[in-house]
Amino acid sequence: xADKRHENEKDAQLESFRVDDKGKYMTTNQGLRxxxxxxxxxxxxxxxxxxxxxxxxxxxxHFDHERIPERVVHARGFAAHxxxxxxxxxEQYTKAxxxxxxxxxxxxxxxxxxxxxxxxxxxxxxxxxxxxTKFYTEEGNYDLVANNIPVFFIQDxxxxxxxxxxxxPEPHNDIPQASTAHDNFWDFVAxxxxxxxxxxxxxxxxxxxxxxxxxxxxxxxxxRFVNAAGEAFFIKFHWKPKLGVHSLVWDEAxxxxxxxxxxHRNDLWDAIERGDYPEYELGVQxxxxxxxxxxxxxxxxxxxxIPEEEVPVKIIGKMTLTNNVDNFFAETxxxxxxxxxxxxxxxxxxxxxxxxxxxxxxxxxxxRLGGPNFHELPINRPICPFHNNQRDxxxxxxINIARVNYHRNSLQGNTPAPASPEQGGYKHYEEKxxxxxxxxxxxxFIDFFSQAKLFWNSMSEPEKKHIIDAFSFELGxxxxxxxxxxxxxxxxxxxxxxxxxxxRNIGVKPPTQGGSPVTKTSPALSQLNTTMTAKTRKVAVxxxxxxxxxxxxxxxxYWKKEGLVVEFISEDLGPVKGTNGVVLEAVQNVYTAxxxxxxxxxxxxxxxxxxxxxxxxxxxxxxxxxHKKTIGAIGxxxxxxxxxxxxxxxxxxxxxxxxxxxxxxxxxxxxxxxWNR
Length: 677
Fold this sequence. Notes:
Layout: H1 9-15, H2 54-64, E1 77-86, E2 105-114, E3 129-137, E4 140-147, H3 160-167, H4 183-191, H5 196-202, E5 217-218, E6 223-226, E7 232-241, H6 250-259, H7 263-273, E8 279-288, E9 314-324, H8 328-333, E10 346-347, H9 352-368, H10 450-458, H11 461-476, H12 481-491, H13 496-506, E11 538-543, H14 549-561, E12 565-570, E13 574-577, E14 583-589, E15 600-605, H15 611-626, E16 630-633, H16 636-643, E17 652-653, H17 658-670
Helix pairs in contact: 3-4, 4-12, 5-10, 11-13, 12-13, 14-17
């Protein structure tokens, strides 16, 4: 792996906190060298342990307290360091230096997560994914706290505890873990129709991404850009993965929960370690203030998106993840995000969900990280200096030497002093606000089904089938027939045929009327319209002794140039010998490898007569075929495909010409799945 560490200010800052224990003497936390770490201090070899054993007390006390509360949501996360580079200045829209200075490489830290499950849950549960990015800028930390779905369940943050309570394990038995397939969640869905759009996304393939590297990120809420002249623009943020947006199939996702519950973690870690640095382009949808009411929905409604065909996403920069963390707890677990962490030129709107988030995030960090000084932890610490009159509290690290800790003062010249906007001080956008104090909601928030129908209309036939299957699975787990019926009736407002198909699958009388009149589509919402590339796709090569060495080597050399990642699977781990002195290293065997861990399969085989190997290989190929993956074969491998009637099918590559085979295989892998098979 290319070592890209220390290429920016944040990495240099973190270096002073890194501790390498290798080759060092053991000490207490006070620096006293320890002579024994396996035996407690006792009164004789069979006597009682003595309270004066300070090393035992320190070691055990730290162990007893080394866990912190997990996040209420987004508990299971994984993160990496990287950098952001702006393509073009956005000074026409914002004065934020991060979006105006194209020469600056800004260090970032990104945490991906599932929303529902606990820290110990699996990676591939059906769920929204968090996509939180901390930019360490010279003006302070800026947190873009996003999800991989552009809308949310609710319109007002006061209902956030309710939706989270509903999708968490049911309180009477704490079942099920990391799943919404239970009565409480679907009871909430049926009785809160504003979530219909979000639920359509959750039931889609977007909720089971192939990889963190292959999912979009969305800011969800509407924010503001403010330029140096004080002009404001409404903004929606988008992260677009360079590898495209791709997903697992449900059968894969379920099996991976048992075979490799760390599937997404392993994928991200391994990609960075081998130098396949994940890349995401940052885009913005920009809406002038005067166009606020030109849409058939409300910009402040977090259950709505702006179709990209109406307001194109302007790509403005690229983020590259270049380093894995050094310590999971110190970085991934202790990082604290907050949408209120902004810089001059970025401001908020009156989106009621966003307004609630501005309180909730910092409040939850206070209890999770044990007090108000979590900003001093290395992973949260800004790269720019920070000065204020805040003092003391749990885990204070700064040693403030000034006698003054209040404002205003004369003893130190009234410093630290506020900075004017011209000096870089943050100034809120001067939006006129006038109204009576009420608990109410604008009528422009009332349409709950039009965008849910837009999403449905925009799906391809395979994607629609997957949505129906997902609804059928989830609602099929619901014990209350009343809740099942209520949900069928609810989604009949989206599409009547959708509801009728779900009803038949879950034992509920199909509705006879309903459906939204919306007919328009948004092609950008379908994953089949995303980038298609074979780069970094993982290929299982099933091989045994006796393979044609030169042929296989030429194919593998071509694939390496095209960016495929290959793993060899054989009867046993270790060397696999082919002709012409070619030797390959099998890192998996048929007992440890499963097809769900790979994007494609290349069947080489060889001269193996091992019955178990052949049976396992047969199952491996059959499962990959059913999951619509690319399959390639030559030699003995091709004979196996012929015997099982898999040749001459879409995505099955068996060219006789070696060069053509290698090229066609890469082209097939780039399609990700072959739905017409």
